[in-house]
Write a structure and sequence with these properties.
Elements (H helix, E strand, L loop, with lengths): L13 E5 L6 H13 L3 E3 L11 H11 L1 E8 L1 H4 L2 H16 L6 E5 L15 E2 L4 H14 L13 H10 L2 E2 L3 E4 L2 E6 L3 E7 L5 H10 L5 E3 L2 E4 L3 H7 L6 E8 H7 L8 H22 L3 E4 L4 E4 L10 E4 L7 E4 L1 E4 L2 E12 L5 E14 L2 E5 L3 H11 L5 H16 L4 E7 L2 E6 L4 E4 L2 E2 L21 H7 L1
Parallel strand pairs: 1-2, 1-3, 3-4, 4-5
Antiparallel strand pairs: 6-24, 7-23, 8-19, 8-22, 9-11, 9-12, 10-11, 13-14, 14-18, 15-16, 17-18, 18-19, 19-20, 21-22
Helix pairs in contact: 1-6, 9-10
Length: 465
């Protein structure tokens, strides 16, 4: 079988940059968007590869079949890299196939030793001012009729990558705070109940969904963690119920059940629904304000839990005590911190918390009606929360849990009068093998010091109004 023909030069439009990592990254993230601003299409392995790509194959294929020129970053540290040498070898073959002796265009970044095969090629000098080298390079690309588009598209990932690299990494471990609460205790079994005789099925389903202890309708009956006596006491005005089966919870989640017949996936979804309802009832019992976000409710602190502007101390033994606000004023509004919680059984049972900030109109020191306009809610979060750092978000999560648990080490969510789910009251901590040079601590008085936390610049306000 013959190999596919190499596309002609007229089929090619990619300027391929052959570079070394990390030596040439700063230069490439400077050069690439400027080439794109002049209408050229650019490929470099900094971010052009999608997750899961076989990166070496993707690089090779792009160079072999799409590249119209190869810009070669030239310095000794780059030219000695095996990957760059392989790219030079492919490019030398393309010089012959495409009949383009200037297919390889060396870019001199610093003095370098000549490399066999490209030693006699004329280079573009970027050793001094990069801007001077760019002018010369653009002239060369234009004179060689390298294809470009009249529609300019600059990939913003060049700048995103540059910013990420600006954060210095240190070889030191760092403890990170997650938004996961581990479930440490579950009931041993779950029960299935059916009515004795005829019953108003819609009324039964409505009662299951409205009672403070979760029950999930299924077929003619429902699943619950209560006893049969408790069930008949709770639903006695609807009818009489009998226990059909009691299933070990582990088996129920791993395999489903036969009586009644339910598959594993349905069983898992049914149980996570019960966990979610138990969490919501716990928040309601704490007096939190319920607000329906796009798909799940969030529960927010109010003046019932904490005064406006008062900070909550948090920190475990061995940690420095830190203080975080959960309610405060900003731009004639009152913001109130809260969370949504999503239960999950994989890779182990846990709740994942999502931070929420809800805005209400300020009526003096009191919160008025929650702002109903979702666009105003979104705009307020963009402006007021823009300056909050990750440390502040994590601090508010810790303060929220500390406030509601009153320093208890766990949270009990009731599934029945005699059955519960127990969560760790502290989020899970992870250890990263490296850390960044970003600020890791905040003084108490600096917790809200960033003016962007509460006031946007006039330009931002004007832009978002």
């Amino acid at each position: 079988m013959s190999s596919a023909p190499t596309p002609s030069r007229t089929d090619r439009n990619i300027i391929f940059i052959s570079k070394g990592t990390p030596e040439d990254d700063d230069f490439v993230t400077w050069l690439a968007p400027r080439l794109e601003a002049n209408g050229y299409s650019v490929f470099a392995d900094i971010f052009s590869l999608e997750t899961g790509d076989r990166w070496r194959r993707e690089i090779t294929q792009t160079l072999q079949t799409e590249a119209v020129k190869m810009l070669l970053c030239c310095r000794d540290a780059t030219l000695t890299k095996q990957g760059v040498q392989e790219e030079i070898g492919i490019a030398e073959d393309l010089v012959k196939e495409l009949h383009d002796p200037r297919f390889i265009m060396p870019l001199r970044l610093e003095p370098f030793k000549k490399v066999f095969g490209i030693g006699e090629l004329q280079y573009t000098n970027f050793e001094g001012r990069w801007a001077d080298g760019l002018v010369e390079l653009l002239d060369d690309l234009n004179s060689q009729n390298v294809p470009r588009s009249d529609v300019v598209t600059i990939n913003r990932n060049w700048e995103n990558y540059r910013r990420r690299r600006a954060i210095q990494i240190e070889e030191a471990p760092e403890t990170l705070t997650s938004n996961w609460l581990r479930i440490t205790e579950l009931p041993d079994s779950i029960s299935y109940f059916q009515p004795k005789g005829a019953i108003n099925q819609p009324a039964m389903c409505a009662a299951c969904r409205s009672h403070r202890l979760p029950a999930e309708p299924y077929l003619r009956g429902f699943f619950s963690f209560s006893t049969v006596d408790e069930i008949n006491l709770m639903y006695g005005d609807i009818g009489k119920f009998e226990l059909v089966s009691t299933i070990p919870l582990d088996d129920f989640l791993d395999h489903g059940a036969d009586a009644p017949s339910i598959r594993r996936r349905e069983a898992s979804n049914l149980f996570t629904s019960m966990l979610r309802r138990a969490w919501e009832q716990w928040c309601i019992d704490k007096g939190l304000l319920r607000y329906q976000w796009s798909s799940v409710p969030g529960f927010h602190v109010t003046d019932k839990q904490i005064d406006l502007g008062k900070k909550v101390a948090w920190g475990t033994q061995g940690e420095k005590k830190t203080y975080s606000a959960l309610r405060n004023t900003a731009q004639k509004k009152i913001w109130q911190y809260g969370v949504s919680a999503n239960p999950s059984l994989w890779p182990f049972p846990h709740f994942k918390l999502k931070a929420r900030v809800l805005f209400a109109n300020a009526e003096g020191e009191n919160a008025g009606e929650v702002i109903a306009d979702k666009k105003v809610q979104h705009r307020s979060r963009r402006i007021i929360c823009k300056g909050w750092r990750n440390k502040q978000w994590h601090g508010r999560e810790r303060a929220f849990l500390e406030l509601l648990t009153n320093e208890a080490p766990y949270i009990d969510l009731m599934l029945a009068d005699t059955a519960r789910v127990r969560l760790d009251a502290l989020p899970m901590f992870l250890t990263s093998p490296v850390t960044t040079t970003l600020p890791n601590t905040m003084l108490d008085e600096e917790e809200e010091a960033d003016e962007q936390t509460f006031t946007a610049s006039p330009a931002v306000e004007q832009e978002t109004e």
